[in-house]
Amino acid sequence: MRRDDGQITVMTIGFFMFLGLLAVVVINSSAAFLQRQQLDNVADGAALAAADGLSRADFYRRGEVRLDGREARRLIGEYVTGGDIRVVSVSTDGDQVHVRLERTISMAIASPGWTSRSTIVSEATSQLRLGD
């Protein structure tokens, strides 16, 4: 006859380990999601700020709506403050500006064997339009 004493203990320990790992994943992904939303807001604001970089020379001489790349970069640099946000790229194409930002975040709970830092990226595009 086989003895089954202690089998439920092993299963209970395994179940609690699974619940612990699940909690770590949920907490870390929620924290990363919230920080990504914040970075999205900064990227949107930076793109809108850069859209104010109208090339006044082109506009007043030829009536063209074009964004000045240097002015857009300067405006984004003024808008994005904080040492942990990096401006990766700024590109202008006529009346549009595209911004890409990065931020390195720390995970709320660092599991053994997993990295405790991750990089999140956000991109935003804004277009300058004249009112009729």
Average pLDDT:
83
Give the proportion of residues in helices: 40-55%
Domain module tally: 1
Strand order of the largest sheet: 1-2-3
**Main β-sheet: number of strands, strand sense, barrel status?**
3 strands, antiparallel
Based on secondary structure, the structural category is alpha+beta
Poorly predicted regions are none
Draw up the topology in text.
Layout: H1 7-50, H2 56-62, H3 69-79, E1 85-93, E2 96-106, E3 117-127
Antiparallel strand pairs: 1-2, 2-3
Q: Would you write up a description of this structure?
A:
By secondary structure, the protein is of the alpha+beta class. It has one domain (7-127). The chain is built from 3 helices and 3 strands; from the N terminus they run αααβββ. The mean pLDDT is 83.
Briefly say what this structure is.
By secondary structure, the chain is α+β, with helices and mostly antiparallel strands.
Summarize this structure as a short list of keywords or feature phrases.
single chain, 132 residues, 3 helices
